[in-house]
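look at this stuff:

>
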Amino acid sequence: MKPVWIVDDDRSIRWVFEKALSREGIAYNSFASAREALDALAGGAPQVLVSDIRMPGQSGIELLQALKQKHPAVPVIVMTAYSDLESAVAAFQGGAYEYLPKPFDVEQAVELIRRALGESRSEAEAAEPAAPPTEILGQAPAMQEVFRAIGRLSQSSATVLITGESGTGKELVARALHRHSARAAKPFVAINTAAMPKDLLESELFGHERGAFTGAQQLRRGRFEQAEGGTLFLDEIGDMPAELQTRLLRVLQDGTFYRVGGHQQLKANVRVIAATHQNLEARVRDGTFREDLYHRLNVIRVRIPAMRERREDIPLLARHFLARSAQQLGVEPKRPSEEALAHIARLDFPGNVRQLENLCHWLTVMAAGQTIGVTDLPAEVRGEGAAAPAGAAADWVAALEQEVERRLARGETGVLDQLARQFERTLIVRALARTGGRRIEAATLLGMGRNTITRKIQELGIRDAEE
């Protein structure tokens, strides 16, 4: 993949981006001026450009315009102070992907760059033939239902509504629906309707005519035109502003629309796939989502299961993401131990597949050896720290199972008696430690009588227990 370019005359800003992108394994080049970046364009375009607007010499706006003339598909993120928001919006309308107000949160900036990288790749896929992407992975019954739905819809152009929690892979399913449809040779265009200001979303969807508003210096084709003959994926449709819901309904009803500031009616030959993590029925009831639009979108619904509903897929996905992270970073893939996989498979993963993928990337970078053990997992995943993840409370059962297996494999006998003594000893020692050695209180905590705990202390050889 080509690098991300960072252009800013402020060395400290460049340094922050360089460190953050290095940590994420994202290749980059940085430039102190727009002139340097323009000179570098002779050797090829970046995957994503991140540029300040106001710099000595040529401005970021001039850099944006020059880049868009030669490489219109490259996403551009413009950085600006809050006081410069008007020019940032003008830059957006002129072709910028997004603006990043200063001061910015580094994690949010990296996430924005990741989204832009995804946008860049999807544009490239639409423009030139590419190798078939990896199919969706999953053996769980809940995922087999998703696969069956994709198969049944392969010969249909019906509107599809994909529902599921954040991070479950709704866009991946949308891409699969497109790839296995009769429209596969045409573009797949995705847009997150919650990722941009509502004042700009209309232009992004439907395009605009030159002079339609301040900053609209040239005609711009919207996503409906870009997806002509193919598929338009509307992510987070539940967050679409009410006024745009009306315009979208018109397109779904009669297949026509107008560019912003335009008078010529355009036809849209596009299959719409929408996705949301929200309860659209509830939003219809509270009046924030049009009921007629909901019924237009909800022709066929595909629900993507959460990770906790497909735990048997977690080891398969973990191995896949570890291999992919290693390939991206150019290193040997790490091998997860069975203990580590068993531990990971018990987690709930509220962030779903995305969270698991991030964990595997972290392990590829941070795990010391080639084999990943439980101790190599982050503290919050191991159950240490302020908030243990769901499932961590059952870790001792897994440890017990593993210890039993080891002893039986060695051919030991009397395993029950040995482990039962260790179990009782641990319970009593910890209870006595909690009560400062007071046996009656310890017995109460454990649910046994004083005579019983006294006898057990003697039988198990527990020392230093106070009366």
Q: What stands out?
A: The chain is about 45% helix and 10% strand. The chain has four domains: 4-118, 132-305, 308-404, 413-460.
